[in-house]
Amino acid sequence: MGLELSKIYAVWLREVKRYTNSKSRMIGSLGQPLLFLVALGGGLSAIIPGFNYQAFILPGILGMTLLFTSIFAGVSIIWDREFGFLKEMLAAPASRETIVIGRTLGGATTAIIQGILILVVGILITGIPFPPLMNLLSLFAVMVIFSCFLVAVGIAFASLIQEVETFQLVMNLLIMPLFFLSNGLFPIDKMPVWLADISALNPISYAIDALRTLLIGQGQFSLLLDIGVCIGSLIVSLAVASYLFSKTSI
Amino acid sequence: MKSPGAIGAIVADNLVKQFNKFTAVDKISFNVKKGELFGFLGPNGAGKSTTIYMLTTLIEPTSGTASVNGFDIRAHPDKVRESIGIVFQDPTVDTRLTAFDNLDIHGRLYGMNAQQRKERIKEVLELVELTEWKDKMVKTFSGGMRRRLEIARGLLHTPAILFLDEPTLGLDPQTRRHIWSYIEKLKSKGITIMLTTHYLEEADFLCDRVAIVDRGKIKVLDTPKNLKNKIGGHIILVQSREPEKLAAALKKEKCCQVYKIEHGVISFDVKDGSKLLPKIIGVAVKAHIDIENVEMRVPSLEDVFIHYTGTSIREEKGAGGEMMAMRRMHGH
């Protein structure tokens, strides 16, 4: 058991080292969410009087950052396949579950670092009051569960699709719909019915709702439901990712 | 379970691998002794890599089995993995990590503790002369340096058996010599090595025994020396403007057996060339056939290869067939 833990640590370490080795990527990937927050948030805030839209979408932008970074981290297995490192992992005396768990935790770690950076910058930009410690701790827990869930989704996809060319497909068919068909940018009670129905089925909505409750107190579901959906999604996605990854070969 | 020494380091027993309808490996059996440097020589698509993938438990055989370091590849894949080091044909180091981190993470994956990692990383870096590069990002390394790092990594956890899949593929001749000297060093330390190659000189220079593989089958297996002796003492090449006429004259005089005629060159596989060569020339003079050039040499491994497979290894036949079949398999 101790040995498996140290192997999980090895896989985690590799993900985190790769991430910290490329500082430019770290800074560069903050650009898009900040643009959303500043341009879209700032612009729409000016049109909607009496509603701080920028503050409203901050949890959505935080969710988007976690969503993008986590799924990319999981899907990056496709690159490991292409550039060969996957063979090194698959040939090692480590179980497939160990690799999936290590990668999930490693990808989630990088996503959470990105998330914290956006959160700090976002609080400064929107000028919302700094949340109390208890909320910050809960926020962190939600970020961990949410990120692990999404990395696992990425791993599951990467195990199914084996070619780098398909990566753009993941982007267009998975990440974008998951974000835009959620409550990230619009409150569910103000959406057209069809969009509200879809959003209510999207697990991303519950994670963002939890972030919104904890950050600015404007959630629409109960926090318990939000966290329940996140944990449920995590368990299902980890099981599916482990199963699909165990079927993968070099 | 029998002890590894008693049954050989690698024992392959009728290994078969099919990808859809394509048979990449067709009933391959062989036995590698402990401490031996065993070579698989064959063109691209002969099934060399597929055999390595089966022996290293990365793909399952369609039928047949093998034992590696005394452990059955089907029944105890984890034990096999702990016993072996692998240097793959395609690069598998992480270019966005430093050389040290590549080795460190490998050591952790193979369950080495901090002390073992510290000692072994130092040793293997010295062996492949990368010590001063250890904190550099691998993406800045040349092809030869990356390959050396792969070899260091394959050795880090002191495996009983090392698999080298085309260890010098695509490297320049100087770097190739360099890698050969590392492999010889390892051999002198008693580690069992199985390597695949399509470079004849490599198999000839390094291997204790060579299996010539073609289209998924072992055509012949012996020491390079015995292989060369088996096909006769000398190769004679006679170049003429009228090769068919000369061949006919030789046949008429019952002089010797023509092996083949190609591009105006007649070749012969003979036991004792020094006796035969004057006879061939005598027949040519008698028949008034001009001879432009004559060459006599002892057979090379290339001649052995041509003898057993009917083609030259340099003709790259069916290149990529193996990989394409594997891609198709993944294609769902």
Give the tags.
heterodimer; A: 250 residues; mainly alpha; B: 332 residues; alpha/beta; Rossmann fold; Alpha-Beta Plaits; disordered C terminus
Notes on the protein architecture:
The complex is a heterodimer of chains A (250) and B (332). The radius of gyration of chain A is 18 Å and the shape is globular. Helices cover 80% and strands 0% of the residues of chain A. Chain A has one domain (2-247). Chain A has helices at residues 2-21, 23-28, 31-47, 53-75, 77-83, 85-91, 96-126, 133-160, 167-180, 193-201, 203-216, 223-247. Chain A is built from 12 helices and no strands. In chain A, helix 4 packs across helix 8. The model of chain A has no long low-confidence stretch (mean pLDDT 92). Chain A has 250 residues and is mainly alpha-helical. In chain B, strand 12 (260-262) and strand 13 form a beta hairpin. Chain B has 2 domains: 4-227, Rossmann fold; 232-298, 2-Layer Sandwich (Alpha-Beta Plaits), CATH 3.30.70. In chain B, strands 6-7-8-3-9-10 form a 6-stranded mixed β-sheet, sandwiched between helices. Chain B has 332 residues and is α/β, with parallel strands linked by helices. Helix content of chain B is 39%, strand content 25%. Chain A binds chain B through residues 3, 6-7, 9-11, 13-14, 17-18, 21-22, 83-94, 162, 249-250, and chain B through 53, 56-59, 78, 81-82, 86, 88, 90-97, 101, 105-106, 108-111, 137, 153, 330-331.
